[in-house]
TrEMBL record, chains A, B:
PROSITE patterns reported in the protein's UniProt record: DDC_GAD_HDC_YDC
InterPro entries: Aromatic_deC, PyrdxlP-dep_de-COase, PyrdxlP-dep_Trfase, PyrdxlP-dep_Trfase_major, PyrdxlP-dep_Trfase_small, Pyridoxal-P_BS
Family: Belongs to the group II decarboxylase family.
GO cellular component assignments: cytoplasm
GO BP terms, alphabetized: amino acid metabolic process; carboxylic acid metabolic process
Pfam families listed in its UniProt record: Pyridoxal_deC (PF00282)
Listed Gene3D superfamilies: Aspartate Aminotransferase, domain 1 (3.90.1150.10), dopa decarboxylase, N-terminal domain (1.20.1340.10), Type I PLP-dependent aspartate aminotransferase-like (Major domain) (3.40.640.10)
Source organism (scientific name): Cladonia borealis
SUPFAM superfamilies: PLP-dependent transferases
Protein name: Aromatic-L-amino-acid decarboxylase
Keyword Lyase: yes
Single GO MF descriptor: carboxy-lyase activity
Length: 529, 529
């Protein structure tokens, strides 16, 4: 493809993308292709000779589009949003043009330096404490995802802990101490922590223990929860070295009690023993607003903080921004330098080699899209964007509250997320429901795994009604929602935080919820009576 | 940025990219900015109000460009290439527009299904054995980098080994066996393996042992090397569970003896005990050519194979293609499924959820760019592209051989890479040089760490001459090369495999090498005499 062909192809691609965005809300939001649909549409091997762009492009609408779930659609209210915007697309385009697997500073100094600058900008915009700025001992790094960031800090925390545990030892003695300690290490997180924490522990080869949270505390992890977990670890001869806390849990957007938790850790452990990480993948974006800034004050006592600009801050996936208080914690753990990666700049120690801040070696020029987004929207634009969704979310929650006959909200609506169940007319109340599940929690099960399908309690009945409503709505393709199981309760999550989402879309989703629920509850009781 | 503004901005960006590619060879190939240059050019915080694209775009040429090292320049002959092409850029653009962190099939079925199809296409194109196709028990997955792929398979191999080791045990007994085994696990690779192997072992929390290779075997890992390493592990009560072999090592593009190695493993270990991985990050691309296809035959006996389309196959970073013989090895190790990731499609087991094939949860739509590249070039176009560089590389090596007075080639030139040193007129011959370093190897040092700076042997002298030549050339900014240390020898790597690289560029690089070497050697002996 020569320059002229590229110009023509790129213009055609841009028109197709603009048209896609302009008409996206008319498309079925969640794909309804059958598994294996695409293989039937494509040849079984690549062409021997090259094809023209026009022929390739045709296949996007014909073959790819039916298999897309449209995350940019204003009818997408599932998972958490994944905002993409025009300036972020331009960032990705330039990044591809400037391709460099920029593992070292010298691979392309601008890749490293822009990353440092824009992450400092972002830290300020999020009202993070100064300890996370690069001018001191901390700094930010762009990772691919919050899950990758968690895996990275778990490994760094493990190495920091083991290094201290083996201090002063050498040779066999050191190896033995390391092995013994390793076998007792445990990662802690609440039972509302994202599953990527369990996966990070698995990757790092250490145990993982989840701490039960209760609905009384709005599913937030408390200081008392952590205290109890630390004591239990002691009884079991386990050494906790990492604690994940969350700002905006996946199921309900709960906010852990950072102040209480960091106080407990400070009072019971030597500094640097337990690495405290804040997973703020989605809700961290709200810290741009002054009214949320107070939350960030508590982060002065944590080791690391991660938020995804690719969720709620208008930047296409991937742009997970990880900030650490002490960058040496990462580089001491993750630096491996053979001769072919050595260079005079790295040797001086004056430059940053981001390969030592992450699991993979190479990295893309992701700072460009963050730079473009921050500049195109400005700080005030970002605040307005977040506030608009917060307001929309509050409206939606109020509509739901207005239909107590149909719905129950099972956790405080927050950050544009509302989590609800169908209000089974025969259901015992929420207090009893809690009692029902508390037993299982105290038996040590991870609550998110509790799905009491087997007994025919009232809760099962409600769960099954809610599930029917959820499945029928998603099958319609008019809106796309996610379900979750919270302390044994099957719930529907509605989060509307796409750039294109407006009141009309949420209202439509609400009406679909009402109609579907009336219909299903009506049928259920007709059958029973 | 609305649609009209995007159209205008995107057209301007495309013109800038076309102009950049058309004139790239006139730019200084390696950036010569001072560390910290960019912070001085940018405001210390993001703007309060949004800015216009025209103002943002201006800063690309003014502030970013001076800090770029131009990997697409035909004068870039460092590391390994990182080809980006117009069709791959279009793939990245669409991927950004269709943003979805596609962890599950239902997140966007086309993302998963196109990946499965194009990786099957690629496996065929690379002449890989059928066991790596998705129609059987294997399949391919796109990772971010070869280093990430290595970390992924090391973790999967560890889990596979531990699961077998703990078979039949439960509770405390199982935990104890797991801990004991874990402390004895060791990852093996040759001393020419990429440093990401050591890092993968670190991430997985296991030991790493590098196996010395000798220049007599052209720095390839042999069956005998592996046999000796296995015996040594037995003596040290270590349990090897993973072996990394390489097709095209970083320093010299050596090709390990896959047939011998797999035979040794098969004859001494039960099946499934030691996971054999092939790191073919760069040279794997050559397997598209029929004349290299015979190498892939031996992969019938390995567990996994990884190559980067983003090095030599015209696709912008990132597109590391990992193929496994048994996809269950990945999913059994890496699947963690909370309720909010459950869905009817995944529950059927009929769809692929690539999150279980990798470390991070989310993933981009990287299959698009691979699809566009395979279709734009066609299989014959890819073969022609590789063969052109192989021929260029052979020419370059011959020019170097023609100046025996100035240069020594220290390993067989391969895959367009030539590795050379300055021919110190006073130097003892290469045989003696080997003797000099073998001692250190037998002392158990990783050879890549041997840099005998302290003694003033002939080798030091040559190393210092070569280093001077290398540093002066890179400082000129006319071409960009990489150095490496191979069995104690400081060497210059020249690899020209950019799409834009032609004979004239290599010839220019050769002439710069000759002039610089004549100058430096001349000076050195003038000073001495």
């Amino acid at each position: 493809m020569n320059a002229e062909e590229f110009r023509k192809a790129a213009h055609a691609a841009i028109e197709e993308i603009i048209d896609y965005y302009d008409t996206i809300q008319n498309r079925r939001v969640v794909s309804n292709v059958e598994p294996g649909y695409l293989r039937k549409l494509l040849p079984s091997s690549p062409p021997e000779e090259g094809e023209q762009w026009a022929d390739i492009q045709k296949d996007i609408e014909a073959k790819i589009m039916p298999g897309l779930t449209h995350w940019q659609s204003p009818n997408f209210m599932a998972f958490f949003p994944a905002n993409a915007t025009y300036p972020s697309m331009l960032g990705e385009l330039y990044s591809a043009a400037f391709t460099a697997p920029s593992f070292n500073w010298i691979c392309s100094p601008a890749v490293t330096e822009l990353e440092t600058v824009v992450l400092d900008w972002l830290a300020q915009t999020l009202h993070l404490p100064n300890c996370f700025l690069s001018e001191g001992e901390g700094g930010g790094v762009i990772q691919g995802s919050a899950s990758e960031a968690t895996a990275t800090v778990v490994v760094a925390a493990r190495e920091r802990y083991l290094t201290t545990a083996c201090e002063g030892l050498e040779g066999k003695g050191r190896e033995d101490r390391r092995d013994q300690t390793m076998s007792r290490l445990v990662v802690l997180g609440s039972d509302q922590s994202h599953s990527s924490l369990a996966k990070a522990a698995l990757i790092a080869g250490v145990r993982y223990k989840s701490i039960p949270c209760s609905s009384e505390n709005d599913l937030a992890l408390t200081g008392a929860n952590v205290q109890a977990a630390l004591e239990q670890c002691k009884c079991e001869d386990l050494e906790p070295f990492f604690l994940l806390t969350t700002l905006g849990t996946t199921s309900t957007c709960a906010v852990d009690r950072f102040d209480e938790i960091t106080t407990v850790i400070r009072e019971t452990r030597s500094p640097g023993t337990i690495w405290i990480h804040v997973d703020a993948a989605y809700a961290g974006a709200a810290l741009v607003c002054d009214e949320y800034a107070h939350i960030a004050k508590d982060f002065v006592a944590v080791d690391s903080f991660d938020m995804n600009m690719h969720k709620w801050l208008l930047t296409n996936f991937d742009a997970s921004c990880l900030f650490v208080r002490n960058r040496k914690d990462l580089t001491s753990a993750l630096s491996v330098t053979p001769s072919y990666l050595r260079n005079p700049f790295s040797d001086t120690g004056l430059v940053t080699d981001y390969r030592d801040w992450q699991i993979p070696l190479g990295r893309r020029f992701r700072a460009l899209k963050i730079w473009f987004v921050l500049r195109t929207y400005g700080v005030n634009g970002l605040k307005a964007h977040i506030r608009r969704h917060i307001t929309l979310g509050e409206k939606f929650a109020n509509w739901i509250r207005g239909r107590e006959d149909l719905f129950r909200i099972i956790a405080p609506p927050a950050f544009a997320l509302t989590v609800l169940t169908v209000a089974n007319p025969k259901l015992i109340d929420w207090g009893l429901l809690n009692e029902h599940t508390e037993t299982k929690v105290s038996e040590g099960l991870a609550t998110s795994d509790i799905m009491p399908h087997t007994s025919t309690t009232e809760l099962d009945h409600t769960n099954s009604l809610t599930k029917s409503v959820y499945e029928r709505i998603n099958a319609s393709g008019k809106v796309f929602l996610t379900s979750s199981v919270v302390n044994g309760v099957y719930a529907i999550r509605v989060v509307s935080a796409n750039e294109k989402a407006d009141e009309e879309h949420l209202r439509k989703a609400f009406e679909i919820l009402v109609r579907t629920t009336e219909d299903i509850v009506g049928q259920a009781y007709k059958v029973e009576s």
